[in-house]
Amino acid sequence: AGGDPGTLAERAHRLKGGARTLGAFQLADLCQQLERMVKGGKMDSGQSLMDQIKASADQTGTLLRERFTNH
Around Cβ 63, how many Cβ atoms within 10 Å? Predict the structure, then answer.
């Protein structure tokens, strides 16, 4: 997000909405945590949370590919 907290919060918000639409609720919840953290100015565990978001997004992508490739 280029170091801009506003951009990071907006991206987390958008990803949260998309994840919820797809039913990826774990990913959506992690994005919501990041969005709140950034808006609250508390980024002490931000990198850990972003790592969790990446892992969840990767897992979601894998599940979606499997779902739509096999049917």
Answer: 13
